[in-house]
Automatic annotation (TrEMBL):
GO biological process: lipid A biosynthetic process
Pathway: Glycolipid biosynthesis; lipid IV(A) biosynthesis; lipid IV(A) from (3R)-3-hydroxytetradecanoyl-[acyl-carrier-protein] and UDP-N-acetyl-alpha-D-glucosamine: step 6/6
EC code(s) of this entry: 2.7.1.130
Name used for this protein in its record: tetraacyldisaccharide 4'-kinase
Keywords per UniProt: ATP-binding, Kinase, Lipid A biosynthesis, Lipid biosynthesis, Lipid metabolism, Nucleotide-binding, Transferase
Amino acid sequence: MATEKARQLLARLAATPDAAVPNLPFLHRALLPLLSAASALLRLPVILSSPLRSRRTLPVPVISVGNLTWGGNGKTPMVDFLARRFHIMGISPLILTRGYAGGDESKMLRRRLADTSTKIGVGANRADVGSSMLQKYGQIDPCDAFRREKLACNRVASGKSAKIGVAILDDGMQHRSLLRDVEIVMVNGLTPWGNTHFIPRGPMREPLSALTRADIVVIHHADLACEAQLETIARTVQDSGTTCSVFFSKLAPSHVFEVHQPLQRLSLNVLDGMIVLCVSAIGCPDAFIHTVREIGPLNVDRLDFSDHHFFNDYDLELIQERVRQLVDQHNKETVVLVTEKDYDRDPDVLRMLGVKVWVLSSSLQIMPLKEQGEDELLRKLKDIITATRHVVQP
């Protein structure tokens, strides 16, 4: 419990701009010099790292999906989106993920992409994992599929070839030891840079100048940000010196399912008139809450935990008590609603709650803003891969 409170405090401080520091409680302000010193130490390896150090390659194109800040940027939904689109093109994708913090993201990807030709390799050394998977399944040149594939025909290949045609590097921007053909950087449209300080004083993993490595920047949760905010983020990206393309994305809810029946698909309308307690341990809980409110329940309450948090007995009691309070207050049944990431982290613990628990299923969508929609994004990916990749030898 103490660890969870400490994580939540760090997250609040990381979201606090310097101008608001004088308004913080004294004990919180007292932590800032220590956090700033830790940030300076953690920043040194980034500053001193050489882009010329030895980097390994894979014999298939590598697409990195990463970010400059911690959590809530839509990396995993984008990996899911790309894997499904390559599958539709007839190209079997390989997802390479570290499996951080219990591997909730990799578990979610396995479940969501079980009906595709996607392979998933988990391990800290993603070059070794990728090489091993390619030796096991073989490889193909995706450019052949690009030439054959016509987006308008909407033909699903259903994984005709088990051979891998592309590797998708999950959370790969700081994984510099593996060369990539395409660098996609995800940016949270609600809180793009936090207070601009480095971890742990702030959320930044690299400075804004790192955007010059990006081929594509995707501003996520763009549907929840105002036009002025999106313009400011896009201007900051361009001012960093990059010449990359900028796209916009959102998470679109599709259905809900009950924790005991993950294969069911209940209409979003089942939330109409309901009392909902949103419970989440994700990087951007505000986006989850906003999405649920847009669906239209009668009342929405929330319990937020730190990103990747595993629910324990104390948390379960806290959730059960909040449910009882809501039932007494509204004299109606209350449903606990969680994200897919929370479900896949530990579905068994959610089944132990003894109350109705539903899971909101959502998918990333590219928003057609500034004439930069899904077709343009996929065309950009194919153009970069075709231009930069040699034909894979059989």
